[in-house]
Amino acid sequence: MRVAGWEPADSSTIPVTVCRVEAPPAKAPMRSTARSLHHHLAVAVLLAFPGAVYAHEKWFADAKAHPTQWEQVFRFPQIVGVAVALSATVALALLWRRSGGRTLLPGPEGFGATPDGRARFYALVPLILGIHVGAPLLVLGIMGQLFSPNNPLTGPWLYCLGVAQIGVGLSVLYGGFARAGGAALCLLWLVGAGVVGLESMLENAHYLGFGLFFALTGRGPYAIDRLLFPALEPSPRVSRLAMPALRIGTGLGLTMVAFTEKLANPELARAFLQHHPLNFTAWLGIPMSDDLFVLCAGSTELVIGLCLIFGIFPRLIVAGAWLLINMSLTVFNWVELVGHLPLYGVMAILLVWTPQDDDQRLWIEGVLRK
What we know:
- By secondary structure, this protein is mainly alpha-helical.
- Helices cover about 65% and strands about 0% of the residues.
């Protein structure tokens, strides 16, 4: 093995003694046990950090040659991964319920944030989310792609849906007719299901969550609507539904990707890893096959998505997903940055917001304050 900046000395100057030692037969089981421990450790590491394949394979590989095969989910070993993910989700749900919905990670109040400060932060949330989703909508619309790089638009749809996507992006960026823009985003998602396929839209279900969010709560106090069209403001009862809709939409998208790019499509993930060798387990000295690597990554993504859908330990789950979703950013550069920008916004907000009554009250106070 050659190490950069170091050259080995002439082998003739190095005394070498070769000894032959025959291992007794009794040691063989120990090697087997060590190998088994290594594999279990590799699985544990991947379950904790599967982000190397968290990048959307369909954004960087031709998925036409590897269509999703849903029957694959019911075959070995994928069915084992799904069963483990479902069992882990149920266990976390029971633990979440027993803890009374208490988060394991401290929130802003643990760092001295006052109720007024938190309410002021919630007033900024629609603006923050508007930037995080508006910019990608503009970029992808200009490039003729619907919601993600693997959904190119052609023919008249390039003009109709592309312009509509740009219009929605401007609406949520500036906060002008933002509730109508949110409804238009939901409609765009539904039309997209017929144009590029329901599977692709379900993979981008976070855009549906964003559409519902803005349709339910608008763009908050820092927007054109608040200055010029105050009659368009939502009621507190409607606005309370905005954050849950955003969380569920994000979780649904992550759950779908866990299936369509891994658990129900291991061939696509395998082809992706052949062109982008991101299976990092060999770097840790505990090599794992690509198939097992994909299975563990898909199972972990499924747990993350389901926990977000059902609101189980949301702050802890988001903190873990935040690390995972950034691990391949330096590999795929601006394409992944633009595509994941909406998710960055959602995760940042969910690190602060919780479904507790106190947060709900401060959310309404902040987002609807005059």
